[in-house]
Amino acid sequence: MALNLRQTRFIESYFTDANGNATVAAREAGYSGDSSTLAVTGHRVLNSDNVKATLAGVLTPEGVQEELSKVATLPADLLGALPSKVRSLELLGKMHGLWSDKLTIGLDREAVEAAISERLRQLAAPADEAQVVDSVALSEPNSRD
Question: What is the DSSP letter of 17?
Fold first, then answer.
């Protein structure tokens, strides 16, 4: 089912000027009533099946990337009204891990333990050979006697 005009305005406002506030988004989309009525309306609109389906498409990593691509290709004269939308998309992208300020390193515990064991064996090998040489030298009769 397609979105009606107010639902479309609600979603646009929700991600831009309203900064995720459903009450403000409902007011800006053209719904009427006092604050408590608009809060209920905002909740109802957010939970309607067609709005949920639309949001599900935007809230995926692919949806965020698609929306950012659309913003990136807009003419410069239209970008003045979009900083809050770009910020919202940036936050959604961070939520989905599309970009990160941290480097995450995953280690396979078994592989690390195997590598450590192998290295310890390598380090122990020369010590074992030296002990063999020392024991051979001790077992040989002294040529001075």
Answer: T
Q: Which residue has the tokens 């913003």?
A: 71
Instruction: Quick: pLDDT tens for 51-83.
Output: 888 777 666 777 777 777 776 666 666 666 566
Terminal C-alpha separation, the chain: 106
**In terms of residues, how long is the chain?**
145
H helix intervals, the chain: 5-15, 22-29, 35-46, 49-58, 61-72, 83-95, 109-139
Q: Which residue has the tokens 């009606």?
A: 4
Distances (CA, A) of 73 to 69, 77, 79, 91: 6, 12, 10, 20
Q: How far apart are CA 112 and CA 101, in angstroms?
A: 26
Instruction: State the Cα–Cα distance between residues 85 and 62, nearest whole angstrom.
Output: 16
Q: What is the pLDDT of residues 129-144, one digit of tens each?
A: 555 555 555 555 555 5
Q: Which phi and psi (to 5°) does residue 3 adopt? A: -75, 145
In sequence order, what are the residues at sequence separation of 6 or more whose Cβ sits closer than 8 angstroms to the Cβ of residue 9? Answer: 28, 29, 30
